Amino acid sequence: MVERFEVALNTPAGRLTTAIDVPTGFIPITAIVPVTRRLGEEASQLEVQRVIAAGQTISCRMGCAACCRMLVPLSAPEAFALREYVGQLPTDRRTLLLNRLGDTKDRVKREGLWDRLNDVAEAARPVPDEQLDPLNRAYYALRIPCPYLENEMCSIYEARPAACRELLVTSPAELCQDLVQNPVTPLPVSMRISSILGLVWGSLTNSPPRLIPLPIALEWAERHEEESRRTWPGSSLLDQVLDNMWRFLSQAFTNRRRASGKEP
Ligand code: SF4
What we know:
The protein is of the alpha+beta class.
């Protein structure tokens, strides 16, 4: 049985209204991941429409995967959802992916970054940006293709992390060949879904809101598999997701007013 909720969110790019079906019983955290990502994508679509109406274009196209060399952060619920997704793939697909993940692990270990990725994922308190930035830069400098990338296309498209869905640019595509040195213009993101899911998970489990680097996400989810079996009422999970979205949106409105000089 599912219960339908009519959701309305005011975003800086317009009003988002949509219906969401949530199971009435107890559900694991992974069950709320798809709908949370969908809300993020609908908010992102409003931003796309806003910039197109302003005469800009989105440069991202199928087959362009320049950004798939970055260190992608996942929330714990997304890491669990990814493990579930990979677990239900046909054996040959799963084996292929696991082999590629193994190759990535070997390479990242050789470069001395593997333990640092694990330290971020297992940190007892949120890792500050000053600590994350050098790690992100060191990883990106290696230009390691994402283990889920095949022929410059995402092989887990429907299960890809929220952070991958949120990165769209209006600057020329060729600038994405070096996302650190070049003046790339990303589409504004008013609600970071991985952060929102991370906050929800943190409050449900009394743990710090953690971000898990994609290359280690399956291993992390396996280590924490016990936690992923817990369940909560579906409506209560949705409430927590929406509460955090409102907080992010409120901050996004403030940020944009400040950026436009309408607020100190
Ligand atoms: S998960 Fe897919 S979209 Fe995200 S970085 Fe990997 S290949 Fe690219």
